[in-house]
Write a structure and sequence with these properties.
Order of helices and strands: HHHHHH
Helix content: over 70%
Number of domains: 2
Number of strands: 0
């Protein structure tokens, strides 16, 4: 329940401001901004609860119950939100690269989740933990490039329109920018935690 609640509140924290905080800003902006802030705090609280109650190191069959497994679910979910906001990116090579990053990382992460649910990870001939560390490192580097290139190509020589409503392209690009940063942080935490689990052994 905590994981589902965290994802739902995270979605609300992204969709609510992009839908109800529009330009020009009226007197209601303060209340809407406060609601967004509280929603973000609720997401952090649920995420902390998930980390405290569901993270338990174990074998591969319980991978989704560990912190890296939960982060994989979060990374795939954020990628789905990014896909829902993508629009008008085919004209610039930098944006096309970013979409390729989102797609490649989502496909691999989704396959990891599916293989875990289907209990197929044990059939992988190479050490799974080290493979995941390598993938997390690669995904992190790819997301670093996307974090730099997406706002660079999206907002270069472009100002926010005076009347930027719910379907404003500028707002969508801003949403993708923040979601990219969120996933970058998720992959960074995933890499650090996975590396610590694989290469740093606690004494018995």
């Amino acid at each position: 329940f905590s994981m589902l609640a965290a994802l739902m509140v995270f979605t609300t924290s992204v969709i609510f401001p992009s839908t109800f905080i529009i330009s020009p800003c009226s007197s209601k902006c303060a209340r809407q901004a406060a609601a967004t802030t509280v929603s973000c705090l609720c997401f952090l609280a649920y995420a902390l609860e998930v980390g405290l109650t569901r993270s338990k190191p174990g074998d591969i069959s319980s991978f989704l119950s560990t912190v890296p497994g939960l982060l994989k679910v979060f990374e795939a979910y954020v990628a789905c939100l990014i896909f829902s906001l993508l629009d008008n990116y085919s004209s610039k090579a930098g944006l096309q690269w970013c979409v390729a990053v989102y797609s490649i990382c989502f496909i691999i992460t989704f396959l990891i989740i599916i293989f875990t649910i289907g209990r197929c990870l044990s059939y992988i001939p190479c050490p799974l933990e080290k493979v995941l560390v390598g993938y997390n490192a690669l995904a992190l580097m790819m997301y670093i490039t996307a974090t730099i290139l997406w706002p660079l190509y999206s907002f270069k020589d472009t100002k926010r329109p005076e009347h930027c409503g719910r379907d404003c392209l500028w707002n969508k690009h801003l949403g993708v920018t923040f979601l990219t940063i969120f996933n970058l942080i998720a992959y960074l935490v995933d890499l650090v935690y996975s590396t610590r689990m694989v290469f740093i052994r606690t004494p018995p």
